[in-house]
Design a protein that fits this description.
The chain is an alpha/beta fold. It has eleven helices and 14 strands. The strands form four sheets. It has a seven-stranded parallel β-sheet with strand order 3-2-1-4-5-7-11, with helices on both faces. β1, α1 (17-28) and β2 form a beta-alpha-beta unit. α1 (17-28) crosses α6 and α3 (87-107) packs parallel to α4 (144-162). The longest helix has 21 residues, at 87-107.
């Protein structure tokens, strides 16, 4: 520890979906003496034991050495999902910005780095059984999100080789949702003008059943608990994080009381590509391709080595998200600001 009052933990991307949950849990942890939240825009939110620092990881002039000085751990969460039409922009923040974080961790001799990887880093895999952390992480090359997550896995391989004194943990969570992130995720995936109230069962008489569309979800607070445990526990390496059951058309049909209709991949992708090319939909068809190929994850290692278990099922997570979308839920940070459309 840096001082007698407890650990100093720095969190990048501290005002986003995951960051707000991680900051809150760390601030509540008695072993944590202080939290430094990094974000491009300082929020009005003031959790205990937390101070803010305005940092833009995309900027070449960003100086992280002083911010990281004396830190006992850095939790790296910062990530830009858009613009999907200009991957060079997200590359500057997500990849080059992450490299700046890794270099600053080494320069400041921070002993612990907890990095937010993703299920999106994994190579295509099975949908009928789960894979553990040894599954290849080469991503899906057409999707910028997956390509960037996979690239950083290779960067961390090199970082760990060159800095064996740093304990590096890689979290690979499933899709993360919570009520407060509903407006942000509607804007990221559906567009800022998609009305939240359409997420009602009576407005969806049927749901498309697309081959391969089977994925996992997790409540953001449950993921944040895994990050907190990783800061405190002497573990290294990757950890899969997901809740049961896997999400598919059958599960969604039960949630919405709607019948499922088989829809070919090609038809679904064509519609998504057309909307994306017209700038009507921010989520790219390349990410859709990746989701159809992502493997299901086995989370045994997180349960055994971290003592982690999700408190909410995937069904409960989605129900909370849909309620948040209908009411335009948000939080007092720039990324999570609430907005009800329609």
């Amino acid at each position: 520890m840096s001082n007698g009052s407890g650990r100093k933990v720095v969190v990048t991307g501290a005002t986003g979906n995951v960051g707000t949950s991680v900051v809150r849990l760390l601030a509540e942890d008695q072993e944590v003496g202080s939290v430094v939240g990094l974000a491009r825009r300082i929020p009005d939110w003031a959790p205990p034991k937390t101070q803010w620092s305005a940092v833009d990881l995309a900027s070449e002039e960003t100086d992280l050495d002083g911010v990281f000085d004396g830190a006992d751990a850095v939790v790296h969460l910062a990530w830009a999902f858009q613009p999907t039409h200009d991957p060079a922009v997200t590359w500057r923040t997500n990849v080059l910005g992450s490299m700046r974080v890794f270099e600053a961790v080494a320069a400041a001799r921070v002993p612990v780095l907890v990095h937010a990887s993703s299920v999106g880093a994994y190579s295509p895999g099975p949908k009928d059984h789960a894979v553990d952390e040894s599954w290849p992480t080469h991503g899906w090359p057409d999707a910028a999100y997956c390509r960037e997550k996979a690239y950083l896995e290779r960067a961390l391989d090199t970082f760990e080789r060159d800095h064996p004194d740093v304990r590096v943990v890689r979290m690979r969570p499933a899709f993360l949702f919570k009520r407060e992130s509903a407006s942000e995720q509607r804007r990221i995936f559906g567009g800022r003008f998609l009305p939240g109230p359409v997420a009602r069962p009576d407005l969806l008489p049927f749901l498309p059943d697309i081959p391969g569309l089977r994925m996992q979800a997790l409540h953001t607070d449950d993921a944040a608990e895994a990050y907190r445990l990783a800061v405190r526990t002497d573990v290294r390496g990757p950890f899969n994080l997901a809740a049961d059951p896997p999400v598919d058309a059958h599960l969604l049909g039960e949630m919405f009381d709607a019948r499922t209709v088989r829809l070919p991949r090609t038809a679904a992708r064509t519609a998504i590509a057309a909307a994306w090319n017209l700038h009507l939909l921010p989520a790219s068809p390349h990410l859709f391709d990746a989701v159809l190929r992502l493997p299901l994850m086995d989370c045994t290692r997180a349960r055994v080595e971290l003592g982690w278990r999700p408190e909410r099922s995937a069904t409960e997570v989605l129900e909370e998200l849909l309620r948040g979308m209908r009411s335009g839920e948000g939080a007092p940070t720039a990324p999570l600001r609430g907005r009800k459309v329609g």
